[in-house]
Model the fold of this input.
Amino acid sequence: MALFEITSEPIAADTVAGKVKRPEAGAVVTFSGTVREWTNGRRTLKLEYEAYRSMAVKQMERIGQEVQDRWPDTRTAITHRVGELHITETAVVIAVSSPHRRSAYEANEYIIERIKELVPIWKKEYWEDGTAWVGDQLETHPYSKGGPPLYD
Amino acid sequence: MINILFFARLQEEAGRESLHVEKAGYTIRELKEWLDEEYRLTGLNRTMTARNEEFTNDDAVIADGDTIAFIPPVSGG
Done:
């Protein structure tokens, strides 16, 4: 059972949550990121996610380690989907368990922020009025915070 | 021989997913300059780079057998 996965199949949130359930945990926080139809008045028809799979898994494992360091009582599982996704479909599920709810909530939010910073996954939007890679250098918002952190 | 990987917009611009070239000994910066001349890829100088699946910087020296991936700003989640 891999805690950190990239898949081209639909994701069941229960399955991801099931990976972190354990007798010591009284809380499981599960986040699902889904495909939104309207963004600032523009209509999305569908999305396509592409990943550098092996590195994406490695970076998700790194995030898992960061979470372990900050919230030692948590357990984390992340599954991100790639390929073509339609409106309301689930792109990512993050599950965190902890003995008490606070650390699970905090860790879960931290994880989605880190995914958006350093996991090599790219989203292509098929807008009603054209197609574009999101987060592209040609857009106005290149790397958040100036780029992913560098590790030696 | 080194292996170069392109993703997202850069892959579309390069018209290919990967490239095998004899560029061991180059720095990442030198490799970017070379690619810019050969393939006319836009914004490479502002693109993050991964060497063997870890983020690296432009001064890193490429070794034979390395996999170098150019990582446009990510947009997962």
